[in-house]
């Protein structure tokens, strides 16, 4: 193994770190603070610079709205190198939006609860880190309260996302079925992402029309949750998003127990947790596919596709041991062919699979990290080992890219890394995989 790789990963993180106390996911392509990126970045920093890990989390939570909502992008700086920026999103339309920071009016998978637990696991100075956590944890609790009271209109314990950018898996082929139900206008706008990255690796113009159309509807309704639940053409119960929430519930329960004196919050978290896990297993598991799937709440229909999100419930301890066996068999049958690196982001046996295009097939380091941890928890140690080794190998061969071709044959010349380079969470989570 390349011994200098941890040093290289640290260099990437430090180069993307900003004096204001947060880290860019990637220079040029993503010039602000992103919600779940910050969570994964903090895990990497926790291994060698805990002050920066704490700042990253504190800065994100500082942008929380008065209703507990935490935005997906915080626009700390002025730049026109990203579209759509603050002038498009207009977060101030919501009466409880942060007065201090401009942001988007959508969120991202809620990772911060389990990130707090991870940094507690990593640190040698447990007392100091627990003190930091005690000062931040109620903000994360308020965020979960927001989800369960505002994003679960049928009181199922499963929260919805109203935009594909909230899923984190931005242009997954799963959303194609939803775009087919929409008649979005053709907007005139200037993309910036395609001036940083090969357009064949990014979403299409027509997909961006849909992305903007959903935001226009939310803005017309001042980002009001009840109105969005009623009117948004995109309303989905996403297994990755809900797994991250459930894993974070579990982490908050453990951390509150360590901190002490928070029995009411623990009781509430346990109630949410029980209901969520039961509904998740009842509603989101597709027996025929042998995998967890997305549910389209707007059109009341399951979206019957297998993606890397389908396996993320392992990390949140959602499946029974028996169901976990079925899930892992599906993963290995569809994604685990010897010619493929684990784990493609979308089913390689499906005709919509595209191993070069963003979330339509490439391997992502954050999902691999989630799956590695989940597989280990259930004792699938050999497959966990393969995921870890595959992750290290693709980074060693290509560099700290945003995503990677899943086909092994493409890696011979070190050009199978796509999207942005020197990508922060690829560096941060590699450090955690190698140091833990
Ligand atoms: C982008 O601009 O593609 C971002 O990932 C949205 O979060």
Short overview:
The chain has 436 residues and is mostly helical. The protein has 17 helices and 11 strands.
What is the strand and helix layout of this fold?
Blueprint: H1 5-16, E1 17-18, E2 22-23, E3 33-34, H2 35-46, H3 50-62, E4 73-74, H4 86-89, H5 112-122, H6 126-150, H7 164-167, H8 176-179, H9 193-196, H10 205-220, H11 225-231, E5 236-237, H12 239-259, H13 263-283, E6 285-286, E7 291-292, E8 294-296, E9 301-303, H14 321-335, H15 365-377, H16 381-398, E10 403-404, E11 417-418, H17 424-435
The structure holds (2R)-2,3-dihydroxypropanoic acid.
(2R)-2,3-dihydroxypropanoic acid binds at residues 72, 165, 170, 193.
Structural write-up:
This protein has 436 residues and is mostly helical. 49% of the residues lie in helices and 6% in strands. The strands form 5 sheets. It has a 3-stranded antiparallel β-sheet, with helices on one face. A two-stranded antiparallel ribbon has the order 1-2. Strand 8 and strand 9 (301-303) form a beta hairpin. Helix 1 (5-16) runs antiparallel to helix 17, helix 2 packs parallel to helix 5 and helix 6 packs across helix 12. The longest helix is centred in the N-terminal third of the chain and has 25 residues, at 126-150. The protein is globular and about 55 Å long. The model has no long low-confidence stretch (mean pLDDT 97). Residues 72, 165, 170, 193 line the site of (2R)-2,3-dihydroxypropanoic acid (DGY).
